[in-house]
Amino acid sequence: MTLLSVSIDAPPQAWPRVSDLPRFAKRHPSVLAGGGVLTLVIIMALFAPVYAGSPMNMDPFETLKPPSSAMWFGTDGLGRDVFARTVFGARVSLMVGSMVVACAALSGLLIGVIAGYSRRFDSIIMRVMDGLMSIPTILLAMALVSLAGSGLGILIVAITIPQIPSTARLVRSVVLSVRERPYVEAALCGGARVPKVLWRHVLPSTIPALMVQSANICAAAILTEAGLSFLGAGVSPEIPSLGNMISSSRLYLGIAPLTVFAPGIWLAIMVLAVNLLGDGLRDLFDPRLKRRR
Question: In this structure, what CATH number is given to the domain that contains residue 245?
Answer without folding.
Answer: 1.10.3720.10
